[in-house]
């Protein structure tokens, strides 16, 4: 896709910052991959309102990815477009957290995944809004408001399923257990993030984890459910090591571009 | 995800006299929003400024409503056309994210037009942070009753939700406070 905006005319913004570009790409990959997963619910959601809800949330997430990719391409000095990031990288080059690529599965799995991700993203984007760098700060400020809406949706469904029937409650609990082994990766801190955080360019997600646990536990408990304590925490997405289900997801997303390289409409 | 990119270069229009900045601003502000055509981009609060940039090129700064708004490419292209038509073919459109667009930017005239078209205007935008569980009552645009309740938080476009009036039983869209 061509970006819908002209670049800022100031030449000084071409400062190359490889680390920030890497980090923005991770955030963009999270948003794009989760958005793509949510798109798979379109026409399959339990109600027509839910079809609208999940597709609208997907639209927001893909919008976040577009902004982050464009910014990443500017920050790294390559000028790569959002299309190049989305459609011309191999599965090993995607750096999304594994949580975002998990198959939707039972609707309760999707709700649990949304609960975990939206509470994390809301905290992270609120913190990003305080960045010393105006570019990620502007994105964080904007995206935090949108994610707050997604979080409300996830909270409401968690409560509805948890307090619904014995069957819905059982499945919601199972959904939480399915996704919880993948939540720790969201808060991992590595050299890239440590360096950026020390400079005040982006926040580290690690210190946000207690707040995330508190907020998520509050909703889960209110829904009459139990926060899982998984025996293991799975990682790898940030390093390009993905789950078995990731390949088909990316292949589907890139299929039109692969068939018609450089095609436009 | 490709934006609408014309495959052939646009025909070069004959040169037109460049209109004054205030005139261009009025023209751009009057452009209809593709999803809410009853209100212009000005009333929607999307246009931030119309002014010559440092390099002398006329620049329109816009604040996107939602980052994933599907109408955005159409808005940008409509503004570019308007710039060209008013004698500024080199004019630019630039997105500015901060401070973010909120529904508080919708003007009083915009709110009236929305209501006249059966769309409840936005209640005051929530502060950053948790979205309140019990939103402020949205009056029904048909009968004015405040006895309304949420029906679906996601509506006919990304920026609208759907409510039901318990007095007149009508469903109505609401420009979701953001």
From TrEMBL, chain A:
Pfam families: PaaA_PaaC. Gene3D superfamilies: 1.20.1260.10. It comes from the Bacteria. InterPro entries: Aromatic_CoA_ox/epox, Ferritin-like, Ferritin-like_SF, PaaA_PaaC, PaaC. GO terms for cellular component: cytosol. GO terms for biological process: phenylacetate catabolic process. This is Phenylacetate-CoA oxygenase subunit PaaC. The gene is paaC.
């Amino acid at each position: 896709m061509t970006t819908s905006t002209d670049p800022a005319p100031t030449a000084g913004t071409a400062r190359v910052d490889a680390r920030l570009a890497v980090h923005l790409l991770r955030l963009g990959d999270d948003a794009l991959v989760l958005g793509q997963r949510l798109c798979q619910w379109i026409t399959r959601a339990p109600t027509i309102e839910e079809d609208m809800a999940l597709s609208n949330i997907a639209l927001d997430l893909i919008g976040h990815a577009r902004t982050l990719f464009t910014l990443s391409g500017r920050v790294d000095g390559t000028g790569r477009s959002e299309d190049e990031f989305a459609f011309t990288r191999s599965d090993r080059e995607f750096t999304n957290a594994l949580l975002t690529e998990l198959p939707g599965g039972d609707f309760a799995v999707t709700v649990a995944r949304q609960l975990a991700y939206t509470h994390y993203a809301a905290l992270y984007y609120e913190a990003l809004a305080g960045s010393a760098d105006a570019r990620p700060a502007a994105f964080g400020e904007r995206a935090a408001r949108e994610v707050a809406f997604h979080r409300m949706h996830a909270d409401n469904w968690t409560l509805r399923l948890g307090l619904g029937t014995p069957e819905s409650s059982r499945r919601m609990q199972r959904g939480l257990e399915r996704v919880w082994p993948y939540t720790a990766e969201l808060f991992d801190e590595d050299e890239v993030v440590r360096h950026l955080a020390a400079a005040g360019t982006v926040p580290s997600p690690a210190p946000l984890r207690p707040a995330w646990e508190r907020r998520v536990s509050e909703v889960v408990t209110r829904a009459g459910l139990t926060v899982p304590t998984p025996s293991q925490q799975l990682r790898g997405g940030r390093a390009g090591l993905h789950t078995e289900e990731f390949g088909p997801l990316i292949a589907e997303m890139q299929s039109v571009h692969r068939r018609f390289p450089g095609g436009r409409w | 995800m490709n934006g609408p990119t014309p495959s052939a270069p646009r025909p070069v229009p004959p040169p037109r006299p460049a209109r004054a900045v205030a005139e261009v601003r009025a023209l751009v502000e009057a452009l209809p929003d593709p999803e809410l055509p009853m209100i212009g981009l000005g009333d929607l609060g999307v246009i931030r400024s119309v002014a010559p940039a440092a390099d002398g090129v006329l620049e329109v700064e816009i604040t996107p409503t939602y980052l994933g708004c599907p109408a955005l490419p159409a808005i940008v292209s409509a503004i570019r056309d308007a710039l060209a038509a008013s004698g500024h073919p080199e004019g630019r459109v630039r997105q500015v994210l901060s401070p973010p667009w909120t529904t508080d930017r919708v003007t009083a005239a915009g709110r009236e037009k929305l209501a006249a078209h059966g769309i409840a205007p936005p209640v005051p935008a929530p502060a950053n942070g948790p979205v309140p569980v019990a939103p402020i009552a949205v009056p029904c645009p048909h009968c004015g009753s405040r006895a309304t309740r949420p029906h679906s938080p996601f509506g006919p476009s990304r920026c609208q939700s759907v409510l039901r009036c318990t007095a007149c039983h009508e469903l109505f869209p609401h420009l979701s406070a953001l």
